[in-house]
Amino acid sequence: MDLETGISQNHVKRESWKTVLTLAYQSLGVVYGDLSTSPLYVYKSTFADDIQHSETNEEIYGVLSFVFWTLTLIPLLKYVFIVLKADDNGEGGTFALYSLLCRHARVSSLPNCQVADEELYEYKKDAAATCLTPKTTFGPRLKSTLEKHRVLQRFLLLLALIGTCMVIGDGVLTPALSVFSAVSGLELSMSREHHKYVEVPVACIILIGLFALQHYGTHRVGFLFAPVVLTWLLCISAIGIYNIIHWNPHVYQALSPYYMYKFLRKTQRGGWMSLGGILLCITGSEAMFADLGHFSQLSIQIAFTSLVYPSLILAYMGQAAYLSQHHAIDSDYHIGFYVSVPGKLRWPVLVIAILAAVVGSQAIITGTFSIIKQCSAMGCFPRVKIVHTSSKIHGQIYIPEINWTLMLLCLAVTVGFRDTKRLGNASGLAVITVMLVTTCLMSLVIVLCWHKSVFFAICFVCFFGTIEALYFSASLIKFLEGAWVPVALSFIFLIIMCVWYYGTLKTYEFDVQNKVSINWLLGLGPSLGIVRVRGIGLIHTELVSGIPAIFSHFVTNLPAFHQVLVFLCIKSVPVPHVKAKERFLIGHIGPREYRLYRCIVRYGYRDVHKDDMEFEKDLVCSIAEFIRSGNDEPNCAKDDLVGEDNKMTVVGTCCTHTDGIQLREEDVDNIESAGTSELREIKSPPLTQPRKRVRFRLPDSPKITRAAREELQELVEAREAGIAYILGHSYVRAKQGSSMLKKLVINYGYEFLRRNSRAPACSLSAPHASTLQVGMVYNV
After folding, report:
1. Environment class of residue 644 by beta-carbon count within 10 Å: exposed (0-12), middle (13-18) or buried (19+)?
2. Whole-angstrom distance, CA of residue 500 vs CA of residue 376
3. By CB neighbour count within 10 A (0-12 exposed, 13-18 middle, 19+ buried), where does 557 fall?
4. How many Å is the maximal CA-CA distance in the chain?
5. Contact 662/648 with Cβ under 8 angstroms?
6. DSSP string covering 409-453, please?
7. Which of 276, 312, 271 is nearest to 433 (CA)?
8. Cα separation of 410 and 427, whole Å?
9. What separation, in Å, do the N-terminal and C-terminal C-alpha atoms of the chain show?
10. What Rg, from alpha-carbon coordinates, does the chain have?
11. CB atoms closer than 10 angstroms to residue 553
């Protein structure tokens, strides 16, 4: 599939109003499924234990007032009008904010960053935006402080990881809560004795089916998502209007903030604790920002302000209007969504609610896959198998290991809790923690990225942080009543992320400390003192400069390697996408006649890696274009880590330099039938039994020197002979004298994760017959 086309998806969205409205319609099924199903469980969770529904209606009016202002201030004001503007070149989410800060303050978690990366288009867009805004004195001081103090950088990374872990925890709890709340409507249609034996099994069956269908991809069933959520929103708003007109037309008076004061004055501590249930009305708000990469700011804003927000307000007002006239409700059924639904409509509404809950669960599961992919690309999560389920939409992925892990955990909490009260407590803490992290990161973005006054950042934190801290305290007080679940899950995932990041960082530091100097390479002489065999050798390394220790280890034990040797580094950069024309960074290592090259392949954290055949073609073609163009290109960048390497040149993939060298590979049977061309061709000499013929098609205009032509000729011969992959297989051990904690983390924790995680992408795609692994012990 054409993976490069996914990069331009975000730029096509804003072409016309028709496109924007189409995206707004599609966003209903992907973004708002979770948020739109919150009326199923908000009132039931709020009135579970802490407060009672009295004849005065002060409690129900107070809860309605809290719900209205919470929906208005957090999703509408904070996310729709402020946070959505802090996109990372069209991408959203916790890691998007962290990526913005990494670029503006140089606090990246990736150890192999280069100055050349700042010449990428995505970086330059930020620089251009920066020049248009006035700079404050506090911003540069804060930036300098972050760059100087490693502790602050680690704290910033830890904050982003905590938010990420809570999103993963939400991916466990939201499907359980949504599906269980939807299925709870069965309690009004059967006896209590039968209901308790039906509710949990039905919820588990639906959850198993939901996770079992994930490998098909959301694009195969996504056509039904938007109509389901649209039908659900219209349904709850219509029922809300009916209840308002029929039961209490004056319920709108409860929207006044005065009723919040009356509510807290009467209920006091119980009312404060009930805020943990009210908090659930904004579950799914973070999805508006996290799923921004699939849509556009305007489409998400239109969908929320014109349909989602009014429908939710009407639904909550309708429930409050019904409950204000019904106080003697059976305690078995308590206060829930379905009691306010007219009797004749309960079964159709139940079906729609279950479908909407499934859609809402699908959205958070897909978001969990996406954020884990971003963490893995940034070196903060073990490598997992990532399956791209759509060739057109780059963000739709499926991760089998995470999918089945989420399913088991989701079933465990469903069977373990068996009620919406404790599930709501658990989900609420996860949701509000992510929002607090977003608020903290946004305050830094306002100062460092937007270059606004620190006064605005302080106002943002104080206003929204105070509201969220109030809800956070109410959720945390119920730690033993279910809120411990997201804390435990997040702690486990946080330990995994920290151990992996620490081990990866120490491994890279070992590579840097033990790399071989170019003087050692030059001391081997023009022939490098060893036999050169035909073919191209790809040595995979994490280093962006110097000769990796694995190379000296290899030639010491086997004094022969290929006539063309490429030190290949595949790395991620803190931008969502890298343009195809900026994909490769290529340079010579040592004198030109040694035929040693360094090739750095750069991917964004949302990019899709190409398969092996396309990658090989792009790699060889880009090296050929580098040879043809020479090293004096205007877009050259100096290697920033060491000065001993030559200049590196930015070279795009084959599809980007159509006026340059093109690579053609043909079977020997088709060579004679090839037509004439206006382009000159460099062909490999005839072989006795060639498997394929390789040709470089050169443009007429530029004059190629004799040395470059010979270098291209040798590259052709080497490519025809084949490509061999030389991969390092490191055994990481804590060095002598290390602390007990470090030995435990490296020798057991990191080693266990390495053994049970996926191999690097290059080793997975490399043909086994052409792969050579070189083992080496890393004492870190």
Report:
1. middle
2. 10
3. exposed
4. 97
5. no
6. HHHHHHHHH-SHHHHHHHHHHHHHHHHHHHHHHHHHHHHHTS---
7. 276
8. 12
9. 40
10. 30
11. 16
pLDDT in tens, 764-777: 566 666 778 888 88
Span 724-774, pLDDT tens digits:
888 877 888 998 888 999 999 999 999 999 888 877 655 556 666 677 888
Tokens 């990736």 belong to residue: 110
Residue range 217-250, pLDDT digits in tens: 655 555 668 899 999 999 999 999 999 999 999 9
Q: What span, in angstroms and rounded, lies between the C-alpha atoms of 692 and 99?
A: 44
Q: Show the CA angle centred on residue 553, arms to residues 547 and 557, nearest 5°.
A: 140
CA–CA distance, 102 with 147 (Å, rounded to integer): 10
Three-state SS annotation for 577-600: CCCHHHCEEEEECCCHHHCEEEEE
Please, are residues 574 and 606 in contact by the beta-carbon 8 Å criterion? no
- 604 contacts 31 by C-beta, under 8 angstroms: no
Best CA proximity match to 45, nearest among 218, 222, 248, 283: 283
Q: How far is CA 456 from the centre of its chain?
A: 28
CB neighbours (10 Å) of residue 219?
13
Whether residue 86 contacts residue 93, with contact meaning beta carbons closer than 8 Å, is answered with no
3-state helix, strand, coil in the chain (%, to 5): 60, 10, 25
The 10s digit of each residue's pLDDT in 93-138 is 888 888 888 887 777 766 667 667 777 766 655 555 554 444 567 7
Phi first, then psi: what are they for 772, rounded to 5°? -130, 120
Q: Closest Cα partner for 77 from 617, 463, 349, 566?
A: 463
* Token digits of residue 473: 């305290």
Single-letter code of the amino acid located at 682: I
Of 282, 549, 322, which is closest to residue 431 (Cα–Cα)?
A: 282
For tokens 């079964």, the residue is 347
Q: At which residue do the structure tokens 């990372």 appear? A: 88
DSSP letter at 572 equals E
Q: Which residue has the tokens 């392949």?
A: 601
Q: Answer whether 629's CB lies under 8 Å from 660's CB.
A: yes
Q: Are 573 and 648 in contact (CB under 8 A)?
A: no
Q: Is 224 helix (H, G, I), strand (E, B) or coil?
A: helix
By C-alpha distance, which of 449, 493, 430 is closest to 140? 449
